[in-house]
Structures are given as C-alpha cells and as structure tokens.
Amino acid sequence: MKIFKFTSQPFLSDMRKVSTHFIAEEWAKAGHTVHVATVGLSYLTLLKNKALFQRLSVAQKNRFAETSPGLFASAYMPPLHPFSSGKPLLNMLNRPFFGLYGSMIPGYMKTPLAEADVVIFEPGTCLSFYEAVRRFNPKAACVYIQRDWLETIGAAAVLQEMEQRMYRTLDLVITPSSKIAAEVPAPCRVEIVPQAINKDLFDADTVSPYPENTRNAISVGNMLFDETSLRAMAEAAPDVTFHIFGAHFAGPRPANVIEHGEKPFAELIPYMKHADFGIAPYRISPNELYLAETSLKFLQYAYCRLPVLTPDLIEDGRGNLIGYSLEGETDWPGKIRAALTMEKSDRFQDGILTWEEVAEKILELAQASVPAEKAA
C-alpha cells in the first residue's frame, strides 16, 4: 500500500518521537511505501528555531529523503507560511493565507500524492491541504487521525472551521479518545484506536542514569506544561531530583530540578525505567480531559510500572495515578510521599498495545472505509 501523511512533527533522528513517527516507521517496516510531509515551516522558522531550520534545509527541504527503507520524509519550506497565534489580530491577518497555502500542492509532493491509496491528516496546519488533496486524488481514502482538540493546541479559528467542513466528506476519523469520538459529528465515521508504545525498546536491559541512593522523578513533554505545580513539588521534596525533558521553566527553577531539553527517544527510556515516579504536569481544564487517553507519557510511565503525579481531574484507569489539585494543593509533601511509596505493579501494564498493532489496525480501518465507488 502507498501511504501519504501530512504532519507538523519533523522527522529527525535526534528529536523526541511522538505517535506519528512510530506509526509511520511501522508501516514502512511492514512493507508499505510511506511518504511523510512536515508542514507549517518556512523561512519564518529561521526566526523561531534556527537549528531546526538549518537541519531540515540540508536534509529534507522541499524534497523527500529516505530516512529508513520505505519511509520518505520531507519538510515543505516555502518562503512564508501561515501560523496560529494567541493574538487575534495576527490570526485575522493569517486567515486568508491558510486557504492559499494549502490550495497549492508543491510539485515535489504531486507524484506520491497521486499514487497514494491512503492520505493521513493530523490536527493543525495539515488541514489546510485537505480540500486540494481531495481534488487532486479523489480515489484515495482520506483519514483524519485526531488526537487533540484544535482549541487545545492553539489552532486558529480558520483551521477549526476547516475541520468542521472536513468532517462532511472525510472517509474516516481515528482517535484514541472516547471523548473526542463522541464529538465527531454524524454521519462521519469514527473509530477509537488506542495509543501504544515500543515494547522492544522498553524491554531491553538498561543501566540507571541516576546516582546510587538517590530519588528521582521524571516529566516528559511540554504540552500544557504546568511550571507552577512542578516548582511546588520540587520545593516540597528537596531530597528528590526532578528531571525535565522537553519543557523549560520560564522563571528560576529550584536547585533540585534538572532541565535536559529535547533528547532522542531511546535516551529517555533509562530515565523512565529507573525513576521513582513520573509526572504529567498538565495545566488542564475539563476540555482537556481527553489527554488521559491520548497522552503517550501515561502509557510509557505505566509500562515502566511508575506511580504518576498528575491533576486530580484526570481519570485513573490503571490505578497508578496520584491526583493533586490545580487550585491550591495543600499537601504536596503527602503527594510526593504517596508517589514514592506506591508499589510498582505489573498490573499498570495491562492492555498496552505495540505500535505495530496500532499501525496495522489503522490501515485495516482505512481500507474498510473506502466507498465502493472509490475502490472500483
């Protein structure tokens, strides 16, 4: 099968991996031809992340590079690109640009797009290309892998409007969240496919990166990062070292907090496996409760048999969550103590899937979703 995937996540070996990377890799391993186009980049990226711009320019700028057998990654980098902003004026100025940006399929994408059996879209700027792709390859199954609300990731209103129009003609929506699935409007077909982990990587023997006789907690990722709560944890437990991957403190950080920055996924695993507990410090509202089902860190922590400190709004489906209040938690020492003393149980791992299983399921559903007139 030939698969084309739009994403906002660059495919670079030393960047933190998310679900889009794992699934694309599994499709290629299974013998499918996979083209992945990272969008939402341009010379504006040079101002925001010079190192990323330079690396993508050398390796993938406006062309596909084979990153592993059968997997081809590219970075679409026109002179400018539209972007979502927290400033209403900028979003208003960007509104017409989103439509223009996605209406013109770049030349280097045209052959793999024309040959694709399945085209995958993800939330965000990727949605700009949907209508053009529908016209360009009307026989392809168009699948939306929706792991987030657009509002949660800060997408501009115009993208939210595009999403609502898209639901009318999509062949399939796949989401790991029952909460998101319940909101997909009829008659759009929707299927729930859970997130997964790479069990082979986690099952491999690793050496602890922590000094002997120390206590260590780990936080992975920067989405909705709650610096206030993490600072309070660290101040309440000076004998615990808090290791932060991906996120950064805006203000001064306690002496027992270490920021590691972005690391290749394989380098994170020993830190997770040998930690005393994990942290999912989301600054969430009831609208973001779907994160309990979509966040990879919850599965990764669970597979490592870790207790997890997280806001008490999040439902505990595995028995390893220790909830704290986002509105003035009064017993941080008690929460830390509970995390340090909870048994690391094998039952936390129950039912966790592999990326191979998830990737296969997505393609099965995509194939089954193609209308008869398209398949003919």
Note the main attributes of this structure.
376 residues; alpha/beta; Rossmann fold; 2 domains; 16 helices; 18% strand
What does this structure look like?
The chain is α/β, with parallel strands linked by helices and 376 residues long. It folds into two domains: 2-192, 3-Layer(aba) Sandwich (Rossmann fold), CATH 3.40.50; 199-349, Rossmann fold (3-Layer(aba) Sandwich), CATH 3.40.50.2000. 37% of the residues lie in helices and 18% in strands. The protein has 16 helices and 16 strands. The strands form three sheets. Strands 3-4-2-1-5-6-7-8 form an eight-stranded mixed beta sheet, with helices on both faces. A six-stranded parallel beta sheet has the order 12-11-10-13-14-15, sandwiched between helices. The chain has a two-stranded parallel sheet with strand order 9-16. α1 (19-29) crosses α15 (355-369). The longest helix is centred in the first third of the chain and has 16 residues, at 88-103. The protein is globular, with a radius of gyration of 21 Å. The two termini are 16 Å apart. InterPro entries: GumK_N (IPR054299). It holds the Pfam family GumK_N. Residues 9-175 form the Glucuronosyltransferase GumK N-terminal domain.
